[in-house]
Amino acid sequence: MVVDRIDSALLRYIAERGGHAGSQLPSIEKLSEELGVSAGKLREQLEVARSLGLVEVRPKLGIRLTDYSFQPAVRQSLFYALACRQATFGQFSVLRQHLEAAFWHEAVAALRPEDHAHLQRLITDAQAKLNGRPIQIPQTEHRELHLTIFSRLDNPFVTGLLAAYWDAYEAVGLSLYSDYGYLQEVWSHHAQIVTAVVNGDVDGGHRLLVEHWNLLAHRGEAGTVATMASIG
């Protein structure tokens, strides 16, 4: 059984009981008695579970399970790889592009009218930042727009990987500065992508998405920026 391959006694305990979000776990002392594992060892395993985003621990509320997300595990491993130069951001960026291309049609088909309205608001907000005084980089809108398009996918591994990409994007400093002309061109593409999505032109939106990546390549996100490995 898969559960037998899990090294942590605490995670095996959670998995065997279904791992339902919001469920309350017994105290460490009670778990120690039930599992026959020392309290010290369980506390170590609890910290691992917290770093993976599987549980939350709050004073007076105890230990509760959270909704499963692949993002925390990917983010921890990705940041480590970038920080010690075991990999580059450019390599992960290429993975992200292939994921978005592969799941584009499924993701767009699953969007609802409220998602379309949200995407249109993001375009409006981003353009207001770019045209305001002072000019602001619409990084929040950038991340939210891409993640919203894929938000209805019933696949936590895809959505977790995509969310981790944006964590890394910000960590390596790509959200801090961009040429104004470049930003205007990027958001012009974003506006066209959203228009295609709202109008049901899925293939046209996919073509525009690929064109959008070509802009990123010219900027160097898959090239010179790929050498940036220091996580501040």
Protein model, in words:
The chain has helices at 9-16, 28-35, 39-51, 71-83, 89-110, 113-131, 139-149, 156-171, 180-198, 202-219, and strands at 24-25, 55-58, 62-65. The protein is mainly α and 232 residues long. It has two domains: 2-65, Winged helix-like DNA-binding domain superfamily/Winged helix DNA-binding domain (Arc Repressor Mutant, subunit A), CATH 1.10.10.10; 71-227, GntR ligand-binding domain-like (Four Helix Bundle (Hemerythrin (Met), subunit A), Up-down Bundle). Strands 1-3-2 form a three-stranded antiparallel beta sheet. The relative contact order is 0.12.
Brief description of this entry?
With 232 residues, this protein is mostly helical.
Described by its quaternary structure, the protein is single chain
Integer-rounded radius of gyration: 21 Å
- Can you say what the CATH homologous superfamily of the largest domain is? GntR ligand-binding domain-like
- The structure class reads mainly alpha
Helix content: 55-70%
Shape: elongated
Mean pLDDT: 89
CATH topology of the largest domain: Four Helix Bundle (Hemerythrin (Met), subunit A)
**Spans with pLDDT under 50 lasting ≥5 residues?**
220-232
CATH class of the largest domain: Mainly Alpha
